[in-house]
Structure formats: structure tokens, C-alpha cells
Amino acid sequence: MDDRYSRQTLFPSIGKEGQKKIRSKHVLMIGAGALGSGNGELLTRAGVGKLTIVDRDYVEASNLQRQQLYTEQDVVDKLPKAAAAASRLKEINSEVNIEAVITDATPEKLEELVKGVDLIIDATDNFETRMAINDISQKHQIPWIYGACVGSFGMSLTIIPGKTPCLNCILKKIPIQGMTCDTGGIIAPTVQMVVAHQSAEAMKILVEDWEAVRTSFVSFDVWRNQYTSMKVVKAKDENCLSCGQNPTYPYLDHENIMKSTVLCGRDTVQIRPPKQQKLQFTVLSQQLKALGYEVKGNPYLLSVEMNEQRLVIFNDGRALIHGTNDLTQAKTIYQRLLG
Amino acid sequence: MNKVLFFAHLKDAVGEEVIELDTNGKSVVEIKELMKEKYPALNLENVMAAINEEFASDEDILQAGDTIAFIPPVSGG
């Protein structure tokens, strides 16, 4: 397919040279939900060299309205998003080296994942992970592109270490997550608008057109018809603990205290064991069945039906407990079944 | 006089996208407190502020004619 990228190389700011650069780059994308689906597809179609997709979740029916890479069959199969996304993206462009990593993007994991990476795309759904990405980006001098959306409202910011302020300069601390859940819902056009901003910035960075990179914090509401672009040069803080004179990367420290998380608006708690495990699903599945539970699974996860809750266990020992927002109850269930 | 703009769900809490207010000489944090008194349903904690489309910190002071916008950071994705 010689002319596969012809329309992109005809675009003067990319050209043949730019295309070679795109081809030589490795992008790390954290999250494979709505923003991850959109960004992943555009980067793959654009012909990036390597795309690593990291996600901790699996495909559910409520994803299909906006997460463009997934199908009804993925829901039936309860496929992990990273695996489902990778297989779809390989069909779209077999030239791209696509790697699926089914894990929680902890600071420790991020340290392993950023090796040789040219750009990080934020497609996460929480500020803890974003702040960790922000710190890792500063520590290893890798640009990243923040993107987020809820309802009809979306926003994006491009962070280039050494040039722009970082997310910690602007937010100062982790904002209350509740604001996202309370407003409720998300429509697909909001996602696409954020994806358009993120992937345009990604292309600029991949072709090294640094002059073209947006230096403002953009936000828009596609339903209430608002659009604003906030200049952020002034926000750069020399005392910032992430990007200032004496950085301590505070958000890379959280590994040991963030063992359970309530997943916002999902009536779900995530439990992560302190040490990564390698579970033997066949053995575990038999044990759980012997206890009288209904167990379903695939090579990546086991789903255990209980009275009020449903437990989904990944083979690294991480679990999602659906049907509760109670951390203690979730931990109890986890420990009862997995010790 | 000053214009105060509310983005996204803040617009719903206030009932209007933009209000006119004489905030001369007040800092961003003071305006936030004023808005909270005026609109009890409005939560401006962790909300970003821009004065004339430029990032503003809590201590920045508004001058006559300035427009201040409140933009809530969101985390979905």
C-alpha cells in the first residue's frame, strides 16, 4: 500500500520527512476507553512506529456508545480493553507495532513503560494516574498530552518538559473527582472533540514541529456552545514539585497507599494487591466453583457472580468488585475469595 | 464593571453563562467566595480561573473591565 499515507504526506507540515519521523516514534497511551479508542485509532492510521496501550479494565455494554474500537462480541467475551483494542488496531494497520499491556498504570509500572517512549497520550479517567504521568513525563523529559471529558465538556493541554508549565503547576493538587461523576454521562461528540485536539498535538510532536504545538489550555462545551483557550505561560512555577528547580515527583510516591480505589460513578471498587501475582486461573476457577459460585472466564480474567456483587479477577491479582462503593466491604470480599 | 463567565456545569449551577459584577480590586479567591455566597449550588473548589483568557492564580487581582472565567477541571476519559 504505497499510497497509504499520501494524503497525510501531501499536507505540507508533515510531508515525506514528517511521515518518516512518525514511523520512527513510540507512543505510550495510558487508558483504552473513549479517548484511548479515538487516539489509538488515529495514531494507528497515521502510521506511528509503535503504540503501547495500557488499560486495567474490560469491555462492557455501556462502553459501546462512544468507545469506537469495541464490538458487541467484545462485551460477550468480556475482553480486556487493551487486548480488544490491539486486535482491532492491528486489523486497521498491520504496519504498526501494537503492544497491549493489561495492567493498572501505577507509578512503578509507568517507570517500566516509558523506556524508549517519545510521547505519552493521556486517555485515563482519573487525576491520580494523570499526576503520576505528569511526574514521570518530567522525570524522563517526555512530552504528554492531557485530555479529559464529561457530559458535553472537554479539555486538553500539551505539556512539554522544559518548555511549558506542567499539570501540577496549573492544578496545584488533585481536584475532587466527584465533580465528574455528579454531572453524569458523556456523549460521543465530546470525546471526538478532545481526541481531535490530542491527536493533532500528537502529530505535531511526532513530526517535531515544536513551533506549532499549542501553548494554551483549551476547553469547550459542545452542547452549551462554549469554547475557550486559556494562555498558561504564566502558570509555570519555579517551585513546582513536579517541574520546578528542585523536583521531588510527589505523585510517583503513591504506590504503596493506593491499594483500593472507588471507580467513579461505576459502583465499583478496584483492589490491587501490594505485590503483583501470577494467578493460576484453572486452579482458582475450580476452587471458586467448589465454593458454589458461578465462574466465567477467558485467558485474561475470571468473572465470579455473587449475590449482590460481581468480582472480576485479572491474572496479576488485581480485581474489580462491582455492586459496591464500600472499600472495606470490597476488601473483605477480595480477601475471602483470594486470601 | 467586570464580566464573570461560567463554563460547563458551573453555567447550570448559576443559571447563566455570564454575569456582570463590579469586582474591582478583588482577588480571584475573594471573587470565588463572593460567588459561593451568591450561588449556594456553585462549587468553585479546585476550579481554574482565567482573567482575560490568561491563567490566573488565587492571588491575582481583577482590574476594571477584566473578564474572569471559571473552568472546572474534569477527569473522565
TrEMBL record, chain A:
Keywords: Nucleotidyltransferase, Transferase. Residues 5-241 form the THIF-type NAD/FAD binding fold domain. GO terms for molecular function: nucleotidyltransferase activity. It comes from the Bacteria. InterPro entries: ThiF/MoeB/HesA, ThiF_NAD_FAD-bd, Ubiquitin-activating_enz. NCBIfam families: PRK12475.1. PANTHER family: ADENYLYLTRANSFERASE AND SULFURTRANSFERASE MOCS3, UBIQUITIN-ACTIVATING ENZYME E1. This is Molybdopterin/thiamine biosynthesis adenylyltransferase. It comes from Cytobacillus eiseniae.
TrEMBL record, chain B:
Pfam families: ThiS. Gene3D superfamilies: 3.10.20.30. Keywords: Nucleotide-binding. It comes from the Bacteria. PANTHER family: MOLYBDOPTERIN SYNTHASE SULFUR CARRIER SUBUNIT. Belongs to the MoaD family. NCBIfam families: moaD (TIGR01682). This is Molybdopterin synthase sulfur carrier subunit.
